[in-house]
Structure formats: C-alpha cells, structure tokens
Amino acid sequence: MVGTRTFAYNGPNDDGTLQLATETIDGSGSGLYSKTITRDYEDNTGVTGRAAGFHINTEYDLDYGYDAKGRLDEVTGPALPGSGTATYTREPDSEMIDRLKFGSDDHAVVYGLHADADVVTSVTNTMNTTMRSTYTYAYDALWRRESVVNAGPAFPSQPEFNIWQYNDRSELGDSKRYAGSDPEVDPLPTPITGQDFVYAYDLIGNRTSYTLDGGTPTNYTRNTLNQYTATDVPAETFTYDEDGNMTADGTWVYTWNAENQLYAVTKPNPVNGDKGVQFDYDYLGRRVRKLVYTHNGTGYTLTSDQRFVYDGWNVVLVLDGLNSNATTQKYTWGLDLSGSIHGAGGVGGLLACEDGSDDYVYLYDANGNVGQVIDAGDYSVAAHYEYDPYGNQIVATGSYAADNPFRFSTKWYDAVTGLSYYGFRYYSPRIGRWLNRDPIGEYGGLNLYGFLENDPVDVIDLNGLWTIERNGGDRALATPGPNDTVAGLALILRLNVREYKLWLKSTPGGPPVPDSPYLPIENDCANCPYTIPNRVILIWGELKKWEIWNQQFSIWNEYRRIIVPKIRFYRQEAFRVIESKEPTAKRTIELLKGQDDYIFIYAGHTTGAGSLTPRLNAIDNVPENQYRSLAKGRHKYALMMVLGCGTADLSKLQTELRRPNVLLERTEFWPTCRPLISPPSWLAVSARC
C-alpha cells in the first residue's frame, strides 16, 4: 500500500462548502513514502478562496496567477526557464490560447488560430530567440486535419509534410509523409520510406488490416466481443480473461488484479537479460509504483523502483525506492488542451522537468504530442520525437530521448513494454488500441477497446472522473470528481465549452455553475450534481411517401436498419428519445430550439420541396420573436446525423450543416446508405461538435 492518507479541510465557507487544505501520506511501516501536499489559496490579496497553487513538504512549490477575467494565466514552478514563470495569453474575445512564453518572448510558443473556428492552424516553438519547430495545419470542409507541414531545425530532414485521408466514418485511412513544404503540389512525390501507412476497419471500428509502404498487409482476426484474436504478419495470437483483459499477445504475458488494473508484464519464457515490470496503484487507481526486474538466467532481480506523487492525475514527483526515496524528477504542469490544468488529462500541459541537476522544457504539436524537449541550460534540443498516427515512434533522437518518459499525447511511455499509461488504462501503439475494456462502458463508444474512434490525428483521450447518470428525462445528472473541470465535461459530452452556461445547469440546493470552465470545481457535496442535456430528437421526413415507396423499393427499410439500432441504444442508456413524423418546417423549428437537446437525427430528403434544406432556410427566415429569440439560448448539438437521398450537390449540404446558429461546427461522413436506386444518389452524413 502507499500509506495512510489523511485529509484536512478549510471551512466551511459561507456557502457551506469545504476546501482541501492538506493531504498527508504517512508511509511509515510498509507504505511507499511520506509526503504532505498543502493546497494554497488566495486571501484578501486576490479572490478569497481561489486556488493559488500547492507545495509538497519543502521540496516542491507551484504558484498560479490569474488575469483580470479570473482565468489562469501564470504558472511558477520548478525547471521553468527565464524568470521561472510561464505566462499564457488568449485571443481577444476567446478562450483560445494564442501564446505561451517562458519569462520573455525569447522563449515562446505561438499558436495560429483559424478565423472562423476554434481550431489551431499552426504551432511555432521558439527557444532562446531561435525557432526550433513549426507545425502548420490545413483542414478539410469537415474540420478534419488533412495535412501538416513539419519544419524547423529540430527536424533532421526538414521540411516534410503529412497528408491524411479518411474513410466515410471519419476514421483515418491513409497517412503519408513527403519531402517538401507544399501539400498542394501536384503530382505528389513518392512517400518517404517507413512513413506510408494505410489502415482499414470494420463497421464497429476494429482494425481489419494495416499496410506499411505498400507491402504485405497485416490482417487482424476479431471475435464477437471486438477483441483481436490473431494477426498474420507477424503471426501473433491474443488471449483474454473473462473480464476482457488481454492476457497475452505472443510477446508479453499480462497479469491483472481484481480491479482490472494491469499488475505485471513479463515474457512468456524469459531468458538472461529479459525484463519484466510490476505496478501498484492507490485508492484512486493512479499508478504509484513501477518496479522493473531483470532476468539473470535463473530468476528476476529488482533493478528499478520508481514511486510517483501526483497532483490530481499529473505526476509531479518521481522518487527512487532503491535510494531512500530520493527525488529524481520534478514536473511542472500548466494548461492542457482543455485550457485548464486537468481537463484534458494533462495532454499538452507538461511545461518543464527538473531531472537531477538538469532542467528541461517541453514543446508540442497541436495534438499535445511531445515533439521536442529543450535543455534549459544551453537551449539545445535534448530530445526530438516523431510518431506515426497511432503513437508508434518513428524518430527518437537526442541525449535525453531515451530517459524522458512523456511522449505521445503527453503520456508516460514504458520503454520496456512499449505501452503508454493513460491513467485508467494502458494503450498499445503497436496494435492501436487499449489492452482492456473501457471502464465507463459504452459511454466511451460502442467499441470498448477502440482508440479515439480511429482518428488519432484530430482527437485526444482524457481521464475525467465525471459521473453521469441518465434517467430517461429531459436532463441527466453529472457529478464532478476531484480536480474535474467543466472543460473536461465538455470534451466527454462533445459539447461546445464556450456555450457551457447554456447546457450546464445547477440542481436545487446544489453548487452554482462555475464562472470559469477551466478551473477545478470546488464541490465537496457528493450528492450535489449538475444537470446536462439528455434529449435525442428524431425526425422521420415524408414517412407516408416512403411507406408507399417501400412496396417497390427498400428505402424505408434502409433508414430503419440504420436508425432503429441507434435509437434502441439511446433508450437503453436512458436518454429521452422524442420522435416526430411531421415533415414540416414548423415542427422542425420547434424541435431545434431546446436547451435540453443533445442529439438530432433527421432521415429524409435533403434537397427539394419538403426536404431538410428548405426547413433550415425557414429557420433563418422566421420572425425574430418566433424563433431567433429562442435560438439565442440554444447550444449546438453534440451529434447530428442526417440520412438522405436526392443530394447531388454535396458542398451545399455541407454548408447547411455548418450554419453556426442552426447546426454544428464540424461534420463527418458516415456511410451506411447504399445506392438502392439511381438516380438519385444516396448520402449519409453525421455531424459532430
């Protein structure tokens, strides 16, 4: 065990809440370590009770600062270069970070932002006045990244660019890297050897094949539980226990504890020099110990004992268990990709590391993958990494490249096993999926082993502790865990964080909606949740006409085949499903204006009389007092799906789906309709924030 953990609180405050003051870990006896984490709060010098940082005994001290709007904009902590403070600035009238500087503009990260959407178009990393790396992105009409240009002296063969292509479900199909700086060049050059990837998937997201450089594909065999059971090149066999945990993959044997946490990884037939690892976890499920053993030909000998101290789910101290718990590394964390300290699980938020007598600064691409680690002493590139789309390392160079554990998605990479530790689960970049089932079940997606919906170019994984309870009503309950933020909840729900005051509501007697979505919620009332939208709207357009057509064609059955299983799932998961068979603009308008709406599904013609397009036009043309006054208070949906035929002009439909006050900011294709009749053409589209 870690030790005995004792919590002390300040308060109660005027609203009856408590604030965590200290967390004391007593590791005397059989515990791992003894530490006291003390939380600091502002008093009359700032906003009374606002988090000002924390310190651990006398060896670690972290301080926060805020701008005039109460948003965190300064972090002062170990290993930060310059003045020892990292400072954030935001785009005017936006929550998007546009600059991070370490002391001065001599050491800065500048983010280029799209004028019409909350997406990053470029990241420029400068240290000691010298640009070290840039990542420049282009997006398609569905706001998927379609290319990136990698440039700067950190790249050995710079400049180079990647082009990404997607299938009709927005899963990554191709990723190819080329020499040069122009993704629009025609014809394209030959892809760089070792960086031409092609992926294929089945309809629920299992990888069916993977091809490198046009060679022999690796084919995956799956069972009915969406578990990989074998591959052919190389020939591997995967086995699982009854809880769905992978127990062997042909290279490693995986042992799990009763909490379905990975306990040990060993070779099936170890020989001299082989390594094995063992993990221990604390009461929250955080990995607090990593033991590495080396086989000497007859048995294993302990060669490393790392122990971890956390702030939330971010590692801040690493201790050497073989050297009286001496501190070996100190980590300073700032704002992650959610714009908060913990909202995105720390992805892109690690600022610096103090490793013995050396200090290092972390630089990233736009998806929070560590690209470079800079030596803060002489500002040289101590480590440089490049990855394939699923996180396998293509390039790892520099004197610190092997020793630095934080890499793809800012997660701890275990070099012995090749696994990345994400908090609740371990990810295998080699097979592009998790080793065990999602602990939150289907709320994380229908495929319990799937990684980022097979779109690692655009999506990140986070480890929020929000508890969501759906009860079949208009609104569901959402209760935050320790250090949770509204920004983290927005990522889980796929709702727009900028609209959180529209979709997040307080419960009677519960805590108020926070003033900022990026600060940890101070909620010590376990039974005081918030409420979130829970309605699924389904409109069947021109139902009577389809029923007549159904005597000759399979149009109606095709829609039912696609939609009915989804609606059945939503009902089983206690969403409130509202169906309408009235194909009128008035009814569509009525159903598009609620704050309780979460998902919108339309099945019918998308152009022409009585179709979706004139209904959207009607929404824009109705008088202010009939619709627009209500539309102002409605948030964008987390998911919109449109199934329709008769759409010859695809770009026009995309334009309709992207209307900012009606539908969504991002769309993606989802092919389920097949050409049953021709003409007209068939189309299936889904849109997602």
Number of domains: 3
Shape: globular
* Topology, number of strands: 47
Question: Helical proportion?
Answer: 10-25%
Mean pLDDT: 83
Strand residues, percent: 35-45%
* Rg calc: 26 Å
What does this molecule look like?
- This protein has 689 residues and is mainly beta.
- It is built from eight helices and 47 strands.
- The chain has a 19-stranded antiparallel β-sheet, with no helix packed on it. Strands 22-23-24-25-26-27-28-29-30-31-32-33 form a twelve-stranded antiparallel β-sheet, with no helix packed on it.
- α5 crosses α6 (612-621).
- The chain is globular, with a radius of gyration of 26 Å.
- Mean pLDDT is 83; it is low at 548-553, 624-631 and 647-689.
Short description:
The chain is mainly beta.
Name its key features.
mainly beta; Rossmann fold; 3 domains; 8 helices; globular; disordered C terminus
List the helices and strands and how they pair.
Elements (H helix, E strand, L loop, with lengths): L3 E7 L8 E8 L8 E7 L9 E6 L3 E7 L5 E5 L8 E6 L6 E6 L1 E10 L6 E8 L2 E10 L5 E7 L8 E7 L5 E8 L16 E6 L5 E6 L5 E5 L5 E4 L4 E2 L1 E2 L5 E3 L4 E4 L5 E5 L8 E7 L5 E9 L4 E12 L2 E7 L5 E8 L16 E6 L2 E7 L5 E6 L5 E7 L5 E5 L14 E3 L4 E3 L4 E3 L4 E2 L32 E3 L5 E5 L6 H8 L6 H4 L1 E2 L23 E4 L1 E6 L2 H7 L5 H18 L3 E5 L4 H7 L5 E7 L8 H10 L2 H8 L7 E7 L4 H8 L9 E3 L12 E7 L1
Parallel strand pairs: 42-43, 42-44, 44-45
Antiparallel strand pairs: 1-2, 2-3, 3-4, 4-5, 5-6, 6-7, 7-8, 8-9, 9-10, 10-11, 11-12, 12-13, 13-14, 14-15, 15-16, 16-17, 17-18, 18-19, 20-21, 22-23, 23-24, 24-25, 25-26, 26-27, 27-28, 28-29, 29-30, 30-31, 31-32, 32-33, 34-35, 35-36, 36-37, 38-39, 39-41, 40-41, 45-47, 46-47
Helix pairs in contact: 5-6
